[in-house]
Design goal:
The complex is a heterodimer of chains A (about 270) and B (about 70). Helices cover about 70% and strands about 5% of the residues of chain A. Chain A is mainly alpha-helical. In chain A, strands 1-2 form a two-stranded antiparallel sheet. In chain A, a hairpin with a 2-residue loop joins strand 1 and strand 2. The chains are: A mainly alpha (about 270), B mainly alpha (about 70).
Chain lengths: ~270, ~70
């Protein structure tokens, strides 16, 4: 019985209609620090960030340390990933000058991919991109790059071209310009970060609830007897979502990279 | 009112998901039509489809985040 009590004591179902966390702070931080260096807490999330960085660097190093004409199996996988980001995302979206942005796009693609796949890794089971700080930081980088590129390529005509679009009838220019300004400089980084964050939080919650409730029913077989078989469909549905979340993890990494490339492209060629 | 807050947020998320649901349906449906009519342009259509989905989906995701904040 104790597992069921443990599950239900978090909130009083007689008083609250639905159970949810006290506040959203726990989506933005990890409280238990493994150890602290001065004011900086070294938590599990920070550990996983370093692990993801290490995995990305190590896999790129192993694959491209001694480039071969006929690469091995691992080399083929890494080469296809790099080729995909370079040819399809960077050059396909930005154009011939997209080559300059390949290092940045490849870095965020691989980092987000590894971070998302932590969600499905056994014994880790925690996507680092479901803590708002990481998508927010990455989208700030993208924001800085497309704003700086816009100013470098067009000078102050960059902001002027957004706020006073020439292709719009003159009576509506201020309105369209205002909407464009807000959407370019405020909504773009916000939605870029929130999209990744919310997708991963939703996936993490679904996996936790389904697999956790399945396990909870199985574990309480001594108390509720044959009725614990209801855990089976939950567990099966959780495994189904597990496969779906793999697709979501790869797709969200791709979409973040693709949108970064599209935003940079709008700064390189602002008239389109 | 305080104890109803969570339930209202839940309804709000449901409402926020209607528009993007319709929108993603239109985006994907038209992308499939484009791919079926011109299979040689399938690559471009697929990239643009993912972009359209990403932009449309943002509204639902903001609703999802607001559910937690409310």
């Amino acid at each position: 019985m104790d597992v069921l009590i443990w599950a239900s004591e978090a909130c009083d179902t007689a008083k609250e209609i639905i159970c949810k966390p006290e506040n959203v702070v726990e989506l933005f931080e990890h409280k238990e620090a493994l150890f602290s260096i001065g004011p900086f807490d070294f938590t599990r999330t920070v550990f996983l960030i370093f692990l993801a960085t290490l995995i990305v660097v190590a896999s790129l190093y192993v694959a491209f340390r001694k480039p071969k004409i006929v690469p091995g199996k691992f080399g083929v996988v890494m080469e296809s990933l790099v080729g995909f980001v370079r040819d399809d995302v960077a050059k396909g979206t930005i154009g011939p000058e997209g080559g300059r942005y390949v290092p940045y796009l490849l870095t965020i693609f691989l980092f987000i991919l590894v971070g998302n796949l932590f969600e499905l890794t056994p014994l880790v089971n925690f996507p680092i991109t479901s803590r708002m700080a990481i998508p927010a930081m990455l989208s700030v980088f993208t924001w800085l790059i497309f704003v700086i590129v816009g100013f470098a390529k067009n000078g102050f005509g960059y902001v002027w071209g957004i706020m006073w679009p020439k292709s719009v009838p003159i009576a509506l220019r201020w309105l369209v310009g205002l909407i464009e300004f807000v959407s370019t400089f405020l909504l773009r980084p916000l939605t870029l970060a929130v999209r990744l964050f919310a997708n991963l939080v939703a996936g993490h919650l679904m996996l936790t609830l389904l697999l956790g409730s399945g396990w909870l029913f199985f574990a309480s077989v001594g108390d509720i007897g044959l009725r614990s078989i209801i855990g089976l469909p939950w567990f099966a549905f959780g495994l189904l979502i597990f496969v779906f979340e793999f697709v979501v993890a790869v797709l969200q990494a791709y979409i973040f990279t693709l949108l970064s490339a599209v935003y940079i492209q709008t700064s390189v060629h602002p008239e389109h | 009112m305080e104890e109803l807050k969570g339930a209202i947020a839940l309804i709000g998320y449901g409402l926020a998901a209607i528009g993007p649901g319709v929108g993603i349906g239109i985006v994907v449906g038209n992308a499939i039509q484009a791919m079926a009519r011109q299979p040689e342009a399938a690559g471009v259509a697929r990239t643009t489809m993912f972009l359209g989905i990403a932009f449309t989906e943002a509204l639902a995701l903001i609703g999802f985040v607001l559910f937690f904040i409310a």
